[in-house]
């Protein structure tokens, strides 16, 4: 059995790891770390797990002996704590933003904190699981929720050099759990219910993450317009992606490209022509569903990509990355069907 | 024009007073008080009012000169501040719980704070607007949201001595705005959405308030079982009230009793036999809709009573009470139809 | 492998069976029947299952060869179709109401249709899985959603003769999926959102079902007051149950009774004294969480019981019953943790 | 008093007209027409109006004598019925799409029905109230909900020739009430709740409406990319509009342009730089709130525009247009503040 520890145990990322790993035949949870809740039972924080007997432990007071540690923490935590695990030969899968950006200045600009040391950033493997090769990796930077939906939607087009790289607009929508479990006025139920807004226009942390990845494929700098919106629902991300095609292309051709690119990827489901995915159709599962559209009158393509932000956009992809690192079949422990309705 | 001030200007009670008074032909808002936001524009806290030019003022720094002051504050504020207005001859309408309970020990027990002085409590008029007589009143204790729905539903039965006073069970359900605007984990959107719970069983502040009022009508101590539930919606209260009838009674007789008792009360709408009100049918309005049911096999009656907790359960009834005190027609400024859908 | 067929394949009961059985190591789905959708792919009706290749088949046109058939149909279907399977030696687990009531007149009165033949009703085993003994059963009447939450909450008290049997009041609340997938004005999103109502007061089909079961334990007729409410959420039932105790009893004693009665039942979790369960704490899982309260001043007990109406209240319990019939461990395939948040 | 009739009385447009006109000092509702509900009381369909005594009447059986008729009907109704009122000298304000498109072929293509006669289309005045001049008009085509939010957001930029007309992308989001009151699987509560989708990509009726209007200002054909999304909430539209600027422009300059253009329009509120409106901030009111953003690195502007689809996007703007036609102050009867929270 692969023994894992989870840091940031009182947040949504951790609790989703616990739920999903319940079905993983090769993994056992050894530690659930929480600084603020150390020595309390897990069930005080999460009554829905009241039959489990885990207790939060403090990283400081424990000699950690396991194979992998997940960080399901806010940014600015893992960059301080990850080295001690790596030094012990424990692999680290980081769900936070600390190891995603290779450029320390960009991190400083968008996260408002000093970045991790360059050496660590260089060591980190940013892993959209369908596209990465991480068998030797010790430190995995698990992608952000918006980037996951966006990059799975854009990768084929950029790789095949089919679009005007200056034309990319990502209008993204997310459920409220993406904001985490911390309290804030705008996510108070009475404020958020029956409400809809755009936020962080031009300033969201996931913008440079998307740009870095696309630039890597394109071999040149790619900028994107990225506008996130907050939707009155708990889970789900839908990214509506607008691009100008370099040349005439039918919707059938685009559809075939996507089918082909993802033919070996069980978690990416390309929807039939004329059909567009809804967030509820991936709820609670690790699927990313993608629908494609072409306006032949002006060579514009529209890609609609949906994920569950807490699964494929966080904990599910983290487990998928673990599976890759440990040479397991990618779907191991991740075969949950969407919860519907 | 009647000039009013509103204390607690950054909360939901205040903002609903502002909305409703917009349509009141005889009232003008002179002050909106807020300690924490003093000197800030109202629109910083409430962007939906960004065309209004009000500024929050501090009570401490203002010489207040107006006719009425509304307290839309948490408990434990008005008992300290009301006297200074009363002394100036300014009427006080208190939407908080500070002047509702006549018994200081009960206040201490349920509110966990020392009660207002007995003399002030004696002076306060608790006013379910349909049943009270407050023309001479200077200090009005505006009823709680649950008590308003419950007492409008129970008053006719208790007044006519038709029920076993030991049998009263009130199973009450409320939208989340009843918990106010303050942050708390359980009203965080992602926790509250798709969720439903009972809370404060046997301990809710509104239990002694209901008991005090019913005891007053009955001329003897009346105890009630009162169980509040939190519903994933913003506005609305529905009280399902179970009582044992003293004697055989048809549903027609019960219906006629209610029609008769409320024949002069525009805000109380008795629904046809077999029809039960939904909270959305009073949304944003000052109506209380009531449906009645009798199980003749066991002489049990069920009363379903709905209000908008922020209107009839708070700010609307406060304005209705103002209208009574100033000898205005009760519906003045309160003729909003429910917002539907 | 146990081969199963599912009748009523286009409804919520069926789609939840499909989701849960995904994790069942001993069961394989052989048929998904639908009359109206025969020969269509499952994914046309349920795009969230677009990677599955099932096709709906018509019962009429198929020679059914399997071990068990689930009926996830509206009432008035299984009573006509079940006999043909039973005659072939295929076990039937019926999620509809057709075989729940032993009294044909009551069925006629509450369902408005003629009941199944008495012989079939006599053969049917009504199975609240925690309390039943069904190893030899061929025809299982899977309990209704409200009865499941209610009866798990009431069984210990009635069995131990601790309450006044005339005093039982069940104030029940359900999410909208309990109304099924069929269209109706009151479950249109814009009508149902931000809305709350009581319905079918005194007339709900689950009232005689609850009464029949309790009467069976008590050895005498037990009547209950049962009032369902519709809550603006998709999943979840919360039953608030009020009973008068026969004698003085502390909350500790009541708590210990429940802990004891359910000590071998993994799916029933008795919550600590002073803690009451929320529906989201069992979302997507087969758990029933119960909290207990005693008002010692008047010997009244309040039991709060929550389930996911589509899992423990329907498809989950149906699989639990299958496990019992086939001598499998009860939790086989049902170890999903609640989806939170 | 201006006497009005409302056709399509059982839909959301009608019921919102009734709510808003309640506060209009110069208008009285004389008729509420409904074919399917003729002779039934209004309150059977809308129990929230159970104190009103209106009865639905059939257009066929009534001699209509009033000043204005509102059509709050699906498309394909007013084009048949409007002429009879116009001939009698009764003004018509049409909330449906029948008179919006001047080009009969486009109507045929997008509505799938034959268009109204060209003469009638020529007579109709399409009226975004802030920008139109309709004092002499007899037939008003009230704009669609998406076009209202979009065109108020785009008009200044197009009028001032500041953008590349080929670059316009409108990513629009709407609450469910925009789909009307008719039943459909995708707006069933359990399907729509916690769900989010794009729909009608490239095919929505409001696309040619937006294009026709913009072309009119620009003096040349303007095409737009228009992608609507369905959001799990009842009311509200948010349009996120992306355009390429012709030349360098600061956000301050853009902000000042909008402030200037709408300086005399009470219902359009330009939000401070860096602030973007939320749909709840206009809930239940006739306001359109607009926030502007400029990315100076690539000369792209983003405009965020929000309205309540049933008020400014339908019935509120219809009353605003009535006010214009009858030379009343635009805000008459429309001074409702947003309902918050």
TrEMBL record, chains A, B, C, D:
It is found in: Cytoplasm. It comes from the Bacteria. Residues 3-137 form the Semialdehyde dehydrogenase NAD-binding domain. The keyword Cytoplasm applies. The active site is at residue 145. Keywords: Amino-acid biosynthesis, Arginine biosynthesis, Cytoplasm, NADP, Oxidoreductase. Pathway: Amino-acid biosynthesis; L-arginine biosynthesis; N(2)-acetyl-L-ornithine from L-glutamate: step 3/4. InterPro entries: AGPR (IPR050085), AGPR_AS (IPR023013), AGPR_dimerisation_dom (IPR058924), AGPR_type-1 (IPR000706), NAD(P)-bd_dom_sf (IPR036291), Semialdehyde_DH_NAD-bd (IPR000534). GO terms for cellular component: cytoplasm. The keyword NADP applies. GO terms for molecular function: N-acetyl-gamma-glutamyl-phosphate reductase activity; NAD binding; NADP+ binding. It catalyses: N-acetyl-L-glutamate 5-semialdehyde + phosphate + NADP(+) = N-acetyl-L-glutamyl 5-phosphate + NADPH + H(+). Belongs to the NAGSA dehydrogenase family. Type 1 subfamily. This is N-acetyl-gamma-glutamyl-phosphate reductase. It comes from Staphylococcus lloydii. The gene is argC.
């Amino acid at each position: 059995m692969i023994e894992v520890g989870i840091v940031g145990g009182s947040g949504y990322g951790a609790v989703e790891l616990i739920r999903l790993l319940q079905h993983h035949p090769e993994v056992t949870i050894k530690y659930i770390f929480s600084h603020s809740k150390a020595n309390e039972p897990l069930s005080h924080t999460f009554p829905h797990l009241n039959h489990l007997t885990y207790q939060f432990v403090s990283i400081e007071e424990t000699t950690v002996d396991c194979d992998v540690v997940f960080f399901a923490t806010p940014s600015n935590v893992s960059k301080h704590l990850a080295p001690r695990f790596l030094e012990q030969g424990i692999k680290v899968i980081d769900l936070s933003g600390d190891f995603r950006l290779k450029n320390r200045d960009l991190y400083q600009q968008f996260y408002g904190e000093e970045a991790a040391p360059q050496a660590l950033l260089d060591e980190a493997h940013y892993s959209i699981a369908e596209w990465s090769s991480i068998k030797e990796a010790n430190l995995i930077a698990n992608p952000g929720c918006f980037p996951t939906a966006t990059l799975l939607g854009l990768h084929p087009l950029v790789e095949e050099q089919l679009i005007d790289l200056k034309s990319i607009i990502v209008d993204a929508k997310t459920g409220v759990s993406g904001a985490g479990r911390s309290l804030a006025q705008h996510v108070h139920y009475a404020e958020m219910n029956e409400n809809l807004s755009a936020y962080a226009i031009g300033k969201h942390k996931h913008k440079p993450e998307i740009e870095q990845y696309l630039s890597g494929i394109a071999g040149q700098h790619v900028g994107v317009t990225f506008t996130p919106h907050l939707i009155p629902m708990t889970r789900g991300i839908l990214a509506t992606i607008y691009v100008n095609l370099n040349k005439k292309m039918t919707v059938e051709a685009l559809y075939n490209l996507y089918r082909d690119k993802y033919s070996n990827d069980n978690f990416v489901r390309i929807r039939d022509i004329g059909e567009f995915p809804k967030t509820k159709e991936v709820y609670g599962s690790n699927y990313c569903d993608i629908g494609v559209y072409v306006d032949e009158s002006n060579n514009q393509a529209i890609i609609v990509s949906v994920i569950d932000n807490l699964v494929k956009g966080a904990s599910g992809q983290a487990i998928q990355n673990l599976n890759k690192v440990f040479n397991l079949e990618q779907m191991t422990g991740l075969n949950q069907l969407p919860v519907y309705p």
